[in-house]
Amino acid sequence: MNGPGQARRPQTTIFTLMSALAQEHGAVNLGQGFPDESGPAHIVEAAAAAMREGRNQYPPMPGIPELRQAISEHQRHWYGLEPDPGDGVVVTAGASEAIAASMLALVEPGDEVIAFEPCYDSYKACIEMAGGVLVPVRLEAPGYRPDRERLRAAVTARTRVILVNSPHNPTGTVFTRAELEAVAALAVGNDLVAVTDEVYEHLVFDGREHVPLATLPGMWDRTVTIGSGGKTFSLTGWKIGWASGPAHLVDRVKAVKQYLSFASGTPFQYGIATALASGDEYYRDLLEGYQRRRDLLADGLADLGFTVHRPEGTYFVTTGVEAFGYEDGMAFCLALPEKCGVVAVPNQVFYADGQVARPEVRFTFCKPEAVIEDGLERLRRGLGRM
């Protein structure tokens, strides 16, 4: 599994490749971030009812009014933000389209976009599609905390946008209020626009606080906030996301979005509108369940000899694999399905220099506890063969 060429797969194919290896070897897929379980029954029924009632044609381009109102109310309830449901919210085909539309709307050829790396792999692609240049600011192991001096040094005369993902995929870091205040001061001081990817906003553990950047002084008028129903409600296949913020920025995102998907998922939009009205108890139960799964996976991986970075948020665990004789996480992940019957994802695909070997790999705990336990047992039996 370590032969020439095999440890240097293009990052655009790694997730497809790992899914194929999972199927080929009957492996437990603890790599890709999609739940094995469906979302709550009342949400699924709301979408089914919309279908039965004939709500199956194109929705309004910005999204159905019920969902835009629900998104606005969600932002007000949780964070005190008040995007106008009429012109401050646009529904997208998942958060991925919101990111793409934001980059295409806000970035001109030659503009620089700062993002913290490792970062979700679509960021670089979307920035480059807009003609921009990704300027990565690295979060270094083992703490994966943003460094203010490194961030400040990344700003040039060509910087236009700062892209912030907290809770952070893949490391699980949740930026503190003080860290985000440093980002805000940089944005205000250099007249930058911020785009924030907050799809894991309700998966923040151990009593930590999720702080939307848009809530900080001077940031509302310069921030596009991106959210999604997929992660919070275990409905990733519905692909219902959104961007919210001040009208002058959201209008620009809408202008691009209309030429991407135009609109999508009419009945699913009704389902997510129902989902966002779920009471606080739903969110508490969600968090408690995921925290149990986090502890199960993180503790189990540590017991097996992985170097574990216990996540503060998201549903991913970053681990080091040096203890098993690997300095190349890609090689480790390519061998893992055959040798152990488990799939993980190499973190190197989340770096701008994605062809450089790194010893970190990502596991997910968005699976039932029985599946996580099965994966850990397979690792326990198979790691000696790696």
From TrEMBL:
GO terms for cellular component: cytoplasm. Its cofactor is pyridoxal 5'-phosphate. Residues 28-379 form the Aminotransferase class I/classII large domain. InterPro entries: Aminotransferase_I/II_large, Kynurenine-oxoglutarate_AT, PyrdxlP-dep_Trfase, PyrdxlP-dep_Trfase_major, PyrdxlP-dep_Trfase_small. GO terms for molecular function: kynurenine-oxoglutarate transaminase activity; pyridoxal phosphate binding. It holds the Pfam family Aminotran_1_2. It comes from the Bacteria. Keywords: Aminotransferase, Pyridoxal phosphate, Transferase. SUPFAM superfamilies: PLP-dependent transferases (SSF53383). NCBIfam families: PRK07777.1. Belongs to the class-I pyridoxal-phosphate-dependent aminotransferase family. This is N-succinyldiaminopimelate aminotransferase.
